[in-house]
Amino acid sequence: MSIGIVGFQTLRFGDARSYLYAANELLRTGHYPEKTEPFYFRAPGYPVFLIAATLGDPDRIALAKIANAVLGAAAALLLAFLSAAIFRRRTVALVTGAAAALHPGFVFVCTDIQSEPLFLLLLLCAGWCLLTAGDRPSSNLAILAGAAAGLAALTRPSALALAPLLLSPLADRRLPGRVRLHVAFSALLGFAGALAPWTLRNAAVYREFVPVNDAGGSAFYQGNSDWMVRFYDLKTPEEYRTWSAAMFTDLERQTREIEAAAPRSPSSKSREFVRRAIAQRRADPGSWRRLLLRKAWDWLRPYPSPLFWPPSAVWTIGALYTVLTLLTVVGMIRRVRPGVRAFAITYLVLTMAAHVAIIVVWRYRIPYWDPVLLLYAALAVT
Known about the structure:
- This protein has 17 helices and no strands.
- It has helices at 2-6, 16-29, 45-53, 61-87, 90-102, 104-109, 116-135, 139-155, 177-206, 216-224, 226-231, 237-261, 266-282, 285-300, 311-333, 338-357, 365-381.
- The mean pLDDT is 92.
């Protein structure tokens, strides 16, 4: 229904055409394009999914959107199973699944050509498999958990930061030490196995170690340069549009300049972007602390940016997330599986820190944080 309201053929999401371009180029040439944007190439996971979901014709936009809706429905179902596995209460699981199916954030990301539905499902698969691998225990499920996390990283590279969490079975005191080691390193094996083919492909193409793509340095520059300092002084959508056009023009210019000095070297490009961002922050030492605090609030605030959304949406979504966050706190206070709660809190802190250090976009928080909020909010209301 939501897709029908937005339009089965409508592309509103800014990155949609880049995903479609990557998928079409892979089909046309048999090789993944070296650039999907003027300054980097996108992770391959979602373009490959588009090819499979549209039966080899990514321009079937309606079919791709329906596939995203199926992913969203599967994610809601899987979140209910994860709730049952954590809390072991049928009522909580049903409330979690129903809330996930109706959650505006999940519905929103399923209405366009964007990677969040696939990424969300892979994250939930990884979480359910890792939890069950510890409860049983099972090295096969641990391998599947790691593989799902690896595929998530191939869909969105920020998931590389989750690799340390695959070692969480080492802290499970219910298991003998040898079993803990076996489960934890099985998860790491699955993670490495999922990443290895693509990383080896990059090594063959670029003669460098590139785990997923070459966007890290550019994203760090966008999130920590003077451009981001200026972003937090914007007041109106018109100012944002002017800022955005100027920023991306400058980013393209710098990309050409850096690539001319080190052609076909993603690592050199990323390092140079990081160096330039750090140099700008060192030139104004106090600004980096202020910038990090602003980015942290940007991640934590319960409402989307008024620069992109009308006031009615800002207030409505803000009220919803405020209630959801308060219920999550109530749910976490309850002493239900404290080990899982400690894992969840560590996960929330780690994913926030990874984005605050690089770049914060409120939309990025939806697949990372909202499942945890829904799980513990459901526990609170039941």
